[in-house]
Write a structure and sequence with these properties.
Radius of gyration: 23 Å
Number of helices: 17
Shape: globular
Structural class: alpha+beta
Largest sheet: 7 strands, antiparallel
Helix content: 25-40%
CATH architecture of the largest domain: 2-Layer Sandwich
Distance between the termini: 17 Å
InterPro entries: FAD-bd_oxidored_4_C, FAD-bd_PCMH, FAD-bd_PCMH-like_sf, FAD-bd_PCMH_sub1, FAD-bd_PCMH_sub2, FAD-linked_Oxase-like_C, FAD-oxidored/transferase_4, Oxid_FAD_bind_N
Protein name: FAD-binding oxidoreductase
Domain FAD-binding PCMH-type: 49-230
Keywords: FAD, Flavoprotein
Number of domains: 4
Oligomer: single chain
CATH class of the largest domain: Alpha Beta
CATH topology of the largest domain: Uridine Diphospho-n-acetylenolpyruvylglucosamine Reductase, domain 3
Family: Belongs to the FAD-binding oxidoreductase/transferase type 4 family.
Length: 482
């Protein structure tokens, strides 16, 4: 039986028999079937899509997850794992067939252990990212993963999508922040590698199979994550400049002068900050006049705030002398630093308030970002004349949120009708520049077909081979990724 055909095979018992077995496994109160109880789980984060499910199941332990998965394997019921449901590519909601269960991991929310000497923390998949950050801080440690949804996203979802965020430049994606995982396989077995080792060269790295797999190979239920010493100071600056090419030159200068203390380097176009000022009036760029581009820089220093400020002042001074930037401000307090970061963090919300938009989470080689923006902006304007580009992102790791807003006066519905054409223009350009059409959000269902245009046949076949080997009945998050 092939992976593609097995998901449609007839179950071995009636849905009610299956649900009764689920109630026995995790108690009836955690088996949700009423529409009023399930709709929040079945609707995607952007509110554009609502799927259907036999039930929403909320196990409270790894053992209960394993029991549910064994029942699903026995009855051939597909499973859609979900963390905080903050994804943007329809990866954590079921389709409209109604034959799957949604497995919410939010009750698996314990921090099992903190080992400050080993600089590790063992956490369950349903732990909210912000809670993990706070638990690390309580031990004078840092967990550096940081993204806009950190108040509601979960570490299991972060691992399943290999989330990026603002600290990738220094600390890497979530994959680099994980030392081991506990996984429930498609057959309901538990694989645990929660040893917290930085060196373990004993065969295939099974951990990396499940990180970034979006729940299509198994369900991550816990992980050992890396901690770092808390920096003595974090200093933020905002630089105004003319072009993304100037930003790239500023990046090279900052990396040369700051080394590993440079932990944030975010590019934002002027239109991004125009939207923020329009929809969140208190938040404005602290300059007398607008500039074409802005870069938000952050230093995390192990010595002192004064030391970090001295480094920043030297970098900013040199950048001004070289005419890489036109102006800059350095935050002199925590409040000012937060205010600068809020300019960046409010962009997505400002876009949503402005209306419908077509989002692209892409990456290209860092050295080619300036050229990519110049070339692709022209192509998008040819495809949709008058559209407004909302370009921002993590310049230090090559990840752009290359978003397109409709022209003034164009109805949202008319603009969204152009989505396929605009996506093709952007994604084809990304491919020509040697990039990726998904930098940190994953593929989910939204880009599952799109990736077929850009992955090589060999890559796709290897992915299908892995999927078939680990999930031969295609029960794990069907219709996602591959």
């Amino acid at each position: 039986m092939t992976a593609t055909s097995a998901a449609s095979a007839a179950p071995t018992a009636s849905p009610e028999t299956f649900l009764q077995a689920c109630r026995a496994a995790i108690s009836a109160g955690y088996v949700l079937t009423e529409d009023a109880d399930t709709v929040g789980y079945l609707t995607d984060q952007r509110g554009r899509y609502t799927g259907k499910a036999l039930a929403v199941l909320k196990p409270g332990s790894t053992e209960e997850v394993a029991a549910i998965v064994k029942l699903c394997h026995q009855h051939l019921v597909p499973i859609v794992p979900q963390g905080g449901n903050t994804g943007l590519v329809l990866g954590s909601v079921p389709d409209t067939k109604g034959n799957a269960v949604l497995l919410s991991l939010t009750r698996l929310n314990r921090i099992r252990t903190v080992d400050p000497v080993n600089n590790t923390m063992t956490v369950e998949a349903g732990c909210i990212l912000q809670n993990i950050q706070q638990a690390a801080a309580a031990e004078q440690r840092l967990f550096p993963l940081s993204l806009a949804a950190e108040g509601s996203c979960t570490i299991g979802g972060n691992l399943s999508t290999n989330a990026g965020g603002t600290g990738v430049l220094r600390y890497g994606n979530t994959r680099e922040l994980c030392l081991g995982v506990e996984v429930v396989t498609a057959q309901g077995d538990v694989m645990s590698s929660l040893r917290g080792l930085r060196k373990d060269n004993t065969g295939y790295d099974l951990r990396d199979l499940f990180i970034g797999a979006e729940g299509t190979l198994g369900i991550i239920t816990a992980a050992v994550i890396k901690l770092f010493p808390q920096p003595k100071a974090q200093v933020t600056a905002l630089a105004a400049l003319r072009t993304p090419d100037h930003a790239l030159r500023l990046l090279s200068l900052a990396q040369a002068r700051c080394g590993a203390t440079l932990t944030g380097f975010e590019l934002m176009s002027d239109f991004c900050l125009q939207l923020v000022a329009k929809h969140f009036p208190p938040h404005r760029a602290p300059f007398d006049k607008p500039h074409a581009q802005y870069v938000l820089l952050e230093l995390s220093d192990s010595e002192s705030e004064a030391h970090a400020a001295d480094i920043f002042e030297a970098v900013i001074g040199e950048a001004l002398e070289q005419e890489l930037i036109d102006d800059a401000v350095i935050a002199t307090s925590i409040a000012q630093s937060k205010s600068l970061w809020q300019l960046r963090e409010h962009i997505s919300m400002a876009q949503a308030h402005e209306g419908k938009n077509i989002k692209h989470d892409i990456s290209v080689p860092i050295s080619r970002i300036g050229e990519f923006i110049r070339v692709t902006d022209v192509l998008v304007q040819e495809t949709s004349p008058g559209c407004r580009m909302v370009t921002f992102g993590h310049l230090g790791d090559g990840n752009l949120h290359y978003n397109v807003s409709p022209p003034e006066g164009v109805k949202d519905t008319d603009f969204i009708a152009q989505q396929e054409k605009i996506n093709r223009t952007v994604h084809d350009s990304v491919d020509k520049f040697g990039g990726s059409i998904s930098a940190e959000h994953g593929l989910g269902a939204l880009k599952r077909e799109e990736i077929l245009r850009y992955k090589s046949p060999v890559e796709l076949q290897l992915m299908r081979t892995i999927k078939q080997a680990l999930d031969p009945h295609s029960l794990m998050n069907p219709g996602k990724v591959i």
